[in-house]
Amino acid sequence: MDFKNLLHKKAEQIDLALEEILPKEIGHQDIIFQSMRYSVFAGGKRLRPILMLAASDFVGGNEKDVLPFCCAIEMIHTYSLIHDDLPAMDNDDFRRGKLTNHKVYGEGIAVLAGDGLLNYAYEIMLKSILQGGADSKRKIMAMEEITRAAGIYGMIGGQVVDLASENKQIDGETLDYIHNHKTAALIIAAIRAGAIIGGADDHTLKCLTEYGKCIGLGFQITDDLLDIFGNEEKLGKKIGSDIENNKSTYPSIHGIDQSIAKVNELFHRSLAVLQEFDTKSAFFMELADYLVKRDY
Question: According to the CATH classification, is domain 3-292 in 1.10.600.10?
Answer without folding.
Answer: yes
